[in-house]
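Forwarding the complex inputs:
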Amino acid sequence: MMLAGLTGDECRQRLANRGLLLKTGPFTVRVRSDIEGFTRLLRQFYGQFPVMETPAVADFHVRVLRPGGIRRWWRPQVQFLLDGQSPFQPFQLSHAFPLFEWGLNWGIAMQAHQYLMLHSAAVERAGKVLILPAWPGCGKSTLCAALVSRGWRLFSDEFGLVRIDDGQLVPLPRPTPLKNKSIDVIRDFAPDATIGPAFHGTRKGTVAHLQTPDASAAQAHIPALPGWLVFPRYRAGATLQLKPIDKPQAFLKLANNSFNYRLLGLQGFQAVTRLVRHCDRYILSYSDLDEAIDTLNQLADA
Amino acid sequence: MTTNSQYGHHGTEVLLTALREPGRMTGFGLDEWDLLLRLARRTRLLGRLAVIMDETGELEQLPASVRDRFTAARVFVSQYQRTARWEINRILAALEGRDVPLVLLKGGAYILAGLPPSRGRLLSDVDLLVPRGLLDSFEQTLLAHGWESVKLEEYDQRYYRTWMHELPPLRHPGRFIEVDIHHTITPLTSRLSPDPEKLLADSIPLTDSRLRVLQPVDMVLHSAVHLFHDGEFINGLRDLVDLTDLFQHFGKHAGFWEELVSRARLQGLLRPLFYTLRYTNRFLDADIPAAAMIATDDGAPPGPVLYLMDNLIEAVMLPEHPEFPRHRRAVAQWLLYVRSHWLRMPPGMLLQHLARKKIMSWRHRKAAAETVA
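Prediction (whole assembly, two chains):
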């Protein structure tokens, strides 16, 4: 059953009691909360994702709750608990949903070492995955959102999950957090896309979430092999350039981009080596989104 | 809630069952697994369960979600153990050409000697025992090779150097593991005072003869002292598991138990040995001969103290159900922390020390608040 298959009351009831078992990509998250605004956004953004019936082994036990004491009434706050422990300072109450998203990302990055985890966006077309590793200000999320709105399947905006045994990428489609200017850029670029409410004054400025397309959500259990490794570089006014890079250079960039390369030791080295050998490798400099998408489409169709 | 609360007491039982009889894990249902994984992670025993399950060859029978968690836990363990091995390798390199006996303690010893407690074991520092006379030159050598003192407050430095059994921890910048250099196994001010010369003299070389470990009975006694007289019981259950493994491994050798008791008597460590036998047997079914139990009877504390310890140790060793914390554990932990200080130094010194620590923490808090503002 999918989350939208539960009525609002059923959903609230599960969240308030034993927890709602939500499946996101390979992970099962047990969520508990009694915050109305959060419940509403969770239903909106995860409506197409499966919920599991108990019993199940959850990878993450999450609570999104209001701390007690004076903060209950005065400038109310919200707290994120991962298996009973609180890794972050509380946020203002209205930011419960972005807090949940960040908290879950943090939990995955800290725990899911059964994968090589790249800090990358990943999208799929024609059975092959395009990996877009993040670099500060490189425009990964914007480019990923634009590609998805033009028919690429969303794997993840944040994690390239690479299976250690066979090198396949595992989808983890979740709402894509658009930040600041990129919110309007995507509104203009994809007028049909569903973008949630804007949260102002977060630690990353204004954030609004882009809904995962139904088709991507429906195929969240289907992995695929990597095909292209493209390091995006957004620079205002830059002319488009797709420059091939050699394997050693790509290796170093990718190893540095991974959350757990060091932790995986030899396995990490082998996994990155395999990726670099398996993929066509480029640096993409761009300023115009349409041009960038055209170039990547041609790459995929070649 | 009703379905969950049946695990209110049952909670810790799942973890203890898995530790005592790993074979029963294959029969666990999904909700038992869910709870077990949470409890094992909190007690830093997830990696151990993963390795043991792998040894039984029944990993494939487990639910995929459990296998994934076990895989991730083993990655974590490998990294920790690799880091520790590398740190020891670097220390040996720094000591090249010098004849300093390097006795590994605890985690480092288990791993380098390939002993059963190393299975899936995490460790965050490398503990070494060095003859007191060589302490200064040993520390200077490491400092000259780039290690730095982690505790920089002048009071902390003095505290370690005058009262403790180890130097302030050292760490090499860019590496994530601490080196604790001990010259004996109990604080200098403690009421216990085993002779470190005996420990060093009877230590045994590993294949790489520059490295040594304590002989079996001393290894057990050190772990026991560390757990019951020094510790804050953060990894209490894990430490009990270590000891249970050592008993199982060494206990088969003829004369081990007699030697253990007589060594404890000689070194004045009968009390920690008594606790160790009692609680490893109680919680983990450690296989201990009745004769050894009886022989350590005179290590037992007076009745009321034992009653109190039984309660505190149970509260601190067994994790609480994550959904139903009763905060018993935190209270017990605090009481045992006070106790460990009480055992560590005479009352006057203790008061002075706690007062200094309190003032320092206020200052830190004030400084932190000012930085934020």
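The beta strands of chain B are 102-105, 125-129, 148-149, 170-171, 178-182, 204-205, 211-213.
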